[in-house]
Amino acid sequence: MPSDLAKSGVKSKCFGAESAIMAVYCFTLLRNFVAMSIVNIAAYKFVTLDDIATLRPALLERCQALDLKGTILLAPEGINLFLAGSREAIDTFLGSLRADARFADLTVKESLSETQPFRRMLVRQKKEIITMKMPVIKPADGRAPGVDPVTLKRWLDAGQDDEGRPVVMLDTRNDFEIDVGTFDNAIDYRLTKFSEFPDVIAAHRKDFEGKTIVSFCTGGIRCEKAAIYMRDIGLEHTYQLDGGILKYFEDVGGAHYRGDCFVFDYRTALTPELAPSTTKQCFACRAVVTAEDQQSPDYVEGAHCPACVGTRAAVSAPESAATAKTSITPATSA
């Protein structure tokens, strides 16, 4: 908790406060901080795994012993995980995972919540940790080059990269995610699943010639795989946004970004301040449901929204809010 306290800004603002007003302010900050007691982490790494048969049960046993919830995906190309639990449990798990040399440099994105966003603990074996249906990931060959958020912001401020080439932002996410928010002037091809990406890019290759391309996604995994593919087909000035949108929010805020960022858990979307937004997702049709849409009589949580009411997508009996929120698991084909 001390490290969380430092991150929250409570320590620097409140300790040593003298005025009554500041004391009330600090009490409010501390109360809100204590309420956000669940640590949510997301991480992935492309690395050769040839021992999944033994690694899978070991990870499941470790997570269950620590009362963690979420999903870990294992594939020959690497690991992809979304977990939530107490600070002590998360730190203990990461310490043991990083003791394995293959995961020693695992980068983790972290946020806090008041409640546990997942209802069970799963460790699954997959053919790919994010499905492209294109065998381009060879961990031994290294990752695609990346651009950090601070450098990207500088490029976007200038309208060009450091070599004077125009910068094109390429959104590799699905259409319903993009509807929640994306970078200014980003290109997207309204993908319904990530496996459509190779064919779409091959058909629009001329759109990117002579430009610097920055592929981006929520946390980095899709844009890393996308960048590798694009460089493989000859688009040499292709980079991935290191850490994805969430790392960009963490480092530089919402500059050059409009809206929020869709996430695959009960929060639905995060603001550039990494706080849960008012946006929701329809459990029936997956459409984005804004705060205004939620006031419509056509919106019933867990049943239908203005976009799908009266259609086959809508369900006749509303699912409970708890079921809708905890049924979300990371989409390997997203």
Structure description:
The chain is an alpha/beta fold and 334 residues long. It folds into 3 domains: 2-35; 38-125, Alpha-Beta Plaits, CATH 3.30.70; 139-259, Oxidized Rhodanese, domain 1, CATH 3.40.250.10. The protein is built from 11 helices and 15 strands. It has helices at residues 2-8, 10-14, 20-35, 52-65, 87-98, 149-158, 175-178, 197-203, 221-232, 244-252, 321-326; strands at residues 38-46, 69-75, 78-85, 108-113, 121-125, 146-147, 167-171, 181-183, 212-216, 238-241, 257-259, 261-262, 269-270, 280-281, 288-289. The chain has a 5-stranded mixed β-sheet with strand order 4-1-3-2-5, with helices on one face. Strands 6-10-9-7 form a 4-stranded parallel β-sheet. Strands 8-11 form a two-stranded antiparallel sheet. Its EC number is 1.14.-.-. Residues 163-257 form the Rhodanese domain. It catalyses: uridine(34) in tRNA + AH2 + O2 = 5-hydroxyuridine(34) in tRNA + A + H2O.
